[in-house]
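Example record

One chain of 343 residues, shown exactly as stored in the release files.
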Amino acid sequence: MTIRYPRPLRPGDRVAVTSPSSGVPERLRGRLDAAVRVVEARGYEVVVGACMDGSRHVSASAGERAAEFEAFLTDPGIRAVVPPWGGETAIDLVSLIDWDKVAAAEPTWVVGYSDMATLITPLTLLSGTATLHGANLMDTPYLQPEGLLSWLDIVELESGSGFTQSSPGRYRSPGWDDWTVDPGKQDLGLDRDGRWTRLDGGTGDVDVAGRLVGGCVETICNLAGSPYLDVRGFARAHAPEGLVVYVEVCEDNALTICRNLHGMRLNGFFDHANAVVVGRTSAPDDATMTQYEAVVDALGTLGVPIVADVECGHVYPHMPFVNGALTRVVHTADRSDVTQRLV
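Predicted structure tokens for this chain:
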């Protein structure tokens, strides 16, 4: 079997916005409007769905959110689906979506990270359809630093093409911009220097390849052992060359993350990994365990390179990752980059 890549977006195509998890409160509608304008400026028509209410932790009932998400994914007139951001309980949609119907439809780019990993990772694993773990809509007005692409750049690529992204060596201190004051803010404010970090004890260069798959630990760990996170089956069907598995942490402390990663490992999530890529995080350490130590405790016995502080998580900037792409990760004294091929 081969990975299914959605056809590239072209001017005039329609991009749907829906909130499978959390919606947008009224005070942040200015940022939503600014983000929509950025997408429209690329030549796309933006369709905003009904599930957008931000007064609670979810934008609508689970049934309504699942129906709208599925409808956009199976509408041949919609070429990409992007949420405003993540949230907390997208997991309540997983058993309500007709995944067979989605798999039978023409592939549509689905973009997002954080709680959206609860949906995009199963979509790739169940159907072999590429999905894009990248900045959500509310982050889209930010300008990417040199070396990184926007999700808007990637959804315009032809199947069969490739692209390389390099670490800018800078990241942002913890904290969020006040979008009520400046809803159109574009500067990411990357104020700290930081390189990738090797955690597995190896001292040589890392140069490893495989099919890319992964997501946010706090959300996808709850799918471990279910049919929706069958990485073993995906590897057998689509990745005889093995996998590059990425994980990233939002906010849970090191002990919780350690337990989550152990559970994912026991359920086969890392069985076919040629390497593990770990996103940079500002999540707290514990008094007796750091976030680095949590990763090593759970995954150190895998015997593969483990590279941390990669720009694929909740710390700006975002390096978009295509679930399903044939990927090469290189980390040396002189370069730290990820090449993805849509093949």
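Notes: The radius of gyration is 19 Å.
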